[in-house]
Amino acid sequence: MIKYADDVRFPSKQDQKNEYENIQDDISETSLEKLVKITKTEYHAIIKYKQNNRDSTEITLPVIKKDDGWKIIVGEDIK
Q1: Where are the alpha helices (DSSP H) in 10-67?
Q2: Is the pLDDT of residue 62 over 80?
């Protein structure tokens, strides 16, 4: 996951990795509902998931092409 995500909540990849390894949430039933093209280097991914046996949640995350490939941008709100 760390290879494909740029999580803007963390100052470094190591901080991101440490936090991800300690996540206690039980995420299940994850699906990519839709991928919307914004530009040729940016998409919005609409993702649906269940967390800790609660109702499904839908989030939209930007996906941006960078020098080292496509990255999911986490921690940035899409309105």
Answers
A1: 13-21
A2: yes
pTM for this one?
Answer: 0.73
Contact 63, 72 (CB under 8 A): yes
Side-chain-side CA neighbours of residue 53 (13 Å): 0
Widest pairwise Cα distance in the chain: 38
**Amino acid, res. 9:** R
Structure tokens at 42: 């940016």
Amino acid, res. 71 = K
Quick check: 51 pLDDT over 90? no
Is residue 79 over pLDDT 80? Answer: no
Amino acid letter, 45: A
The neighbour count for residue 22, using CB atoms within 10 Å, is: 7
pLDDT score at 36: 97
Do residues 71 and 44 lie in contact, with contact meaning Cβ atoms separated by under 8 Å?
no
